[in-house]
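CORE FACILITY INTAKE
Project code: CF-77B
Contact: R.S. (postdoc)
Sample description: multi-component assembly, two entities in total
Requested service: structural model of the whole complex
Turnaround: standard
Below are the sequence entries exactly as provided by the requester. Do not edit them.
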Amino acid sequence: DVKVTQSSRYLVKRTGEKVFLECVQDMDHENMFWYRQDPGLGLRLIYFSYDVKMKEKGDIPEGYSVSREKKERFSLILESASTNQTSMYLCASSTWGGLAGSGELFFGEGSRLTVL
Amino acid sequence: AQSVTQLDSQVPVFEEAPVELRCNYSSSVSVYLFWYVQYPNQGLQLLLKYLSGSTLVKGINGFEAEFNKSQTSFHLRKPSVHISDTAEYFCAVIPYNQGGKLIFGQGTELSVKP
């Protein structure tokens, strides 16, 4: 069974702390994504990666960075957390191109971050 | 630029009633289309997808959707809903030229009442 695993379901951090959100997929997918989800705003893309060590900004990259050192792992980093980054963060992976590459996203369970 | 519009933010229905969740998209190129469901405090899971072929696609849990190219719509339907269908539903598209990057609608909250 395909699986995307996010390291923490719930986190509480203080303003100014550095926060790491980890995501691992076991499907050998090339593409990985980080979204944030807020009521009334839907899913907004923060960053995505098409390959190891490659990253591209999504729609709302400010205040975030990412790291992809291995194909299966994609980390989201909040260098200095702020209260407006309190949100649900969703990681996803996909493959694109070829018969199996419809781009269907496989999601993790989400990480709910509260910044105090 | 491509966009996806879900026309209803909330849809309340009674159990065993039919439901339709509406989705329209805008794109200058061909797209793949998806519906995802999110149950409370969980990630999203795929309900169904349209890649090519028959415009009526069937998904899990008795849901189906019809792709209408001329109206650029992909509405989701179920003839009889259950309490367990209460969830948030997201329509999404991948334009062929976007390298696999999905564009999501804002979501529709389906609330099924007994």
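Facility notes:
- The longest strand of chain B covers residues 87-95.
- Chain B touches chain A at residues 9, 32, 34, 36, 41-46, 49, 51, 90, 92, 94, 99-102, 104-107 (CB under 8 Å).
Invoice: internal transfer
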